[in-house]
């Protein structure tokens, strides 16, 4: 433990909770920063701002929601659900967590956006659309280990499990930066668009906007990713 504390105090190492396993990983800070920069360059998903974009995004969200309410496209309670109070909004920030279970220990980007102006809209859309997706994708979705066992039992009962049957898994690289940004309809499209387009954050004291896909860390992005893959 003292050795770990000494490394961290020197500032040449970084301690992060790992992806999925929940254990902690100690890595070389320079290597960590190099991988983070390589990810940004590879995906091209982020552009830098000259100044803090928080209040610009807040004004856009306020204008959109008030416009939808004035046209009676949304109800008052829906407006209240989606509109964050000005004194509570904060700029999101980007950080990376290591994936030591994969070769080379790549990094996963997470945008912490709990108090972004778009967070209320993101949560509202997720609650609205996710149940619809879950209903249509239920037959091809495994929820947990127990569900997996039940599915295998049914698979066997129906005679699908043969001696030559192969069970496999696959991983999709950079799924969250593959999401299309222009697929929704009318009011939902407008709400979804502002959640995706106005994804701004701070990283290493610099301001950025994500211009490809959606942010891992936003409630609605997971539903969009599932819809994109199911389609």
From TrEMBL:
It comes from Rotaria socialis. Residues 78-231 form the Reverse transcriptase domain. InterPro entries: RT_dom. The lineage of its organism: Eukaryota, Metazoa, Spiralia, Gnathifera, Rotifera. Keywords: Membrane, Transmembrane, Transmembrane helix. This is Reverse transcriptase domain-containing protein. The chain crosses the membrane at residues 211-230.
